[in-house]
């Protein structure tokens, strides 16, 4: 199918694949080499208006379908995605710099997300209908919010697109989706499939950079904005949405603590953090980037993580043996290197990595930084790279206090053999996900979202459907 080719750069507007009409184009690059894979035309303001108008026209008809009918369309899209899984994996690997061995699992997960959310919309829950007022029967209708503007990030381009449009479409909303200008190719390939499988206007995809997202956020016919991005971008979107009182769904990043207590299984910890810290080159808002260990285990934790970091295989993204790919761009690599350099200048030490290699691509090695202060920039701010800090805590109480002493609240993990201690820690940590003796594992059935500057709203699970719909009371007087 042509829609899975790397050089397809068409927007999807009202069921038609059309070129963006903006005056400029954004190069979609392979971050492992810097090679331009495609020039993607930016959408013009007129393109955005047409996409929103198409979504608005399509809304009454899509909303009127039964949940089973909407689910059938979405399941067909999931089937098509999996039938072209190899091409999608190649596109995602090339454009996002992901090691090819890691991508097929992401494609399968995307298809499972679509199928789960399509099915969950068929069994929405509400209070029982009844006579809560004498002489009248009340019941609740669950109503889609309307046209949703979805703005996806570059770290998991296809997955984050799915997390946004799947729950919205499942409950009856229509969507205008903007992928990141850095990584649009897999989303545009999915748009080509959607053009054949979904009614015109139900899902629209427009390319472009910040001004396109800003226009969507401020558009008077958009009822809701769903964004995954930085805190700074979230604030801008919230400000743009405020005059229209639009509903917001903001997932804005994290600074995940890993609390390791004296009785933890360090071997299991190291095996988990091989992926949870360094997978996707650490470009994951739930990445295990901030390890806090109590005294008896601290030295073994540093040694184990240093060994893991040194052993990761870096190489071309199309090599199945590659474990650590490049960062998304040389600018991001330089940003990550700046965090490490400033931490070392402030007194921290590096036990693995710490310097970008020579040669092409935006590669940065898996890096372990030990001994930063709690108020250090590298502890308090999201680095978004393959960098793990390790701090020593005097006791479990201090470790948990340090874990919570950041402005983010997306994910955390606790490592201990004591079930009671684990449950108490999980109850006290105010993070959207808390793992015990694991980190990063997710599933379609459980929610993803955070507290504080990690934003609000939930992806995945039945809770995601709540954010794209509103309960409405209907009363019938006898």
**Based on helices, strands and strand pairing, what is the structural class?**
alpha/beta
CATH superfamily of the largest domain: Aldehyde Dehydrogenase, Chain A, domain 1
Q: Give the C-level CATH assignment of the largest domain.
A: Alpha Beta
CATH fold node name of the largest domain: Aldehyde Dehydrogenase, Chain A, domain 1
Distance between the termini: 57 Å
Number of helices: 15
Please compute the radius of gyration using only Cα atoms.
23 Å
Secondary structure: number of strands: 22
Helix content: 25-40%
Main β-sheet: number of strands, strand sense, barrel status? 7 strands, mixed
* Spatial sequence of strands, sheet with the most strands: 14-15-16-13-12-18-19
Q: How much of the sequence is in beta strands?
A: 15-25%
Summarize the structure.
By secondary structure, this protein is α/β, with parallel strands linked by helices. It has helices spanning 45-64, 67-83, 85-96, 103-120, 157-170, 185-197, 210-218, 231-241, 266-276, 295-311, 330-345, 377-380, 396-404, 419-428, 461-467; strands spanning 11-13, 16-18, 25-29, 36-41, 130-133, 136-144, 147-151, 174-178, 203-205, 224-228, 247-251, 256-260, 288-293, 349-352, 367-370, 387-392, 408-409, 411-415, 433-436, 451-452, 455-456, 469-477.
């Amino acid at each position: 199918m042509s829609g899975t080719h790397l050089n397809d750069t068409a927007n999807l507007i009202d069921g038609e694949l059309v070129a963006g009409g903006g005056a400029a184009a954004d190069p979609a690059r392979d971050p492992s080499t810097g090679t331009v894979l495609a020039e993607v035309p930016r959408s013009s303001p007129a393109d955005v208006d047409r996409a929103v108008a198409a979504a608005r026209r399509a809304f009454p008809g899509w909303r009127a379908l039964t949940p089973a009918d909407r689910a059938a369309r979405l399941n067909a899209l999931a089937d098509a995605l999996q039938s072209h899984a190899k091409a999608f994996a190649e596109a995602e690997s090339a454009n996002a710099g992901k090691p090819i061995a890691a991508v097929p699992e992401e494609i399968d997960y995307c298809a499972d997300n679509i199928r789960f959310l399509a099915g969950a919309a068929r069994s929405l829950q509400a209070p029982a209908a009844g006579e809560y007022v004498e002489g009248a029967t009340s019941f609740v209708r669950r109503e889609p919010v309307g046209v949703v503007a979805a703005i996806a990030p570059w770290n998991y381009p296809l997955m984050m697109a799915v997390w946004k449009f799947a729950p919205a479409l499942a409950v009856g909303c229509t969507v205008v989706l903007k992928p990141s200008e850095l990584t649009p190719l897999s989303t545009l390939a999915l748009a080509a499939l959607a053009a054949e499988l979904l009614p015109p206007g139900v899902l629209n995809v427009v390319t472009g950079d910040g001004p396109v997202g800003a226009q969507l956020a401020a558009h008077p016919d958009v009822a809701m904005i769903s964004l995954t991005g930085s805190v700074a971008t979230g604030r801008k979107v919230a400000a743009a949405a405020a005059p229209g009182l639009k509903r917001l769904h903001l997932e804005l990043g994290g600074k995940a603590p890993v609390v390791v207590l004296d009785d933890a299984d360090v071997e299991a910890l190291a095996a988990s953090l091989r992926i949870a810290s360094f997978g996707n080159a650490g470009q994951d808002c739930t990445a295990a980037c901030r390890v806090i260990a109590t005294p008896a285990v601290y030295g073994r934790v540093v040694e184990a993580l240093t060994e893991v970091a040194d052993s990761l295989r870096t190489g071309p993204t199309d090599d199945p043996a590659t474990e650590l790919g490049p960062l998304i761009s040389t600018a991001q690599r330089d940003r990550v290197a700046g965090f490490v350099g400033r931490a070392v200048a402030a007194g921290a030490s590096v036990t693995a990595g710490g310097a970008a290699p020579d040669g092409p691509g935006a590669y940065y090695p898996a890096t372990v930084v030990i001994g930063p202060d709690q108020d250090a920039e590298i502890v308090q701010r999201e680095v978004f790279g393959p960098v793990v800090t390790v701090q020593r805590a005097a006791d479990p109480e201090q470790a948990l206090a340090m874990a919570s002493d950041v402005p983010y609240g997306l994910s955390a993990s606790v490592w201990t053999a004591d079930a009671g201690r684990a449950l108490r820690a999980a109850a006290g940590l105010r993070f959207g996900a808390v793992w015990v003796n694991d980190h990063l594992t997710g599933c379609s059935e459980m929610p993803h979202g955070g507290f504080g500057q990690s934003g609000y709203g939930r992806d995945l699970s039945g809770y995601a459907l709540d954010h794209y719909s509103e309960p409405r009371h209907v009363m019938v007087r006898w």
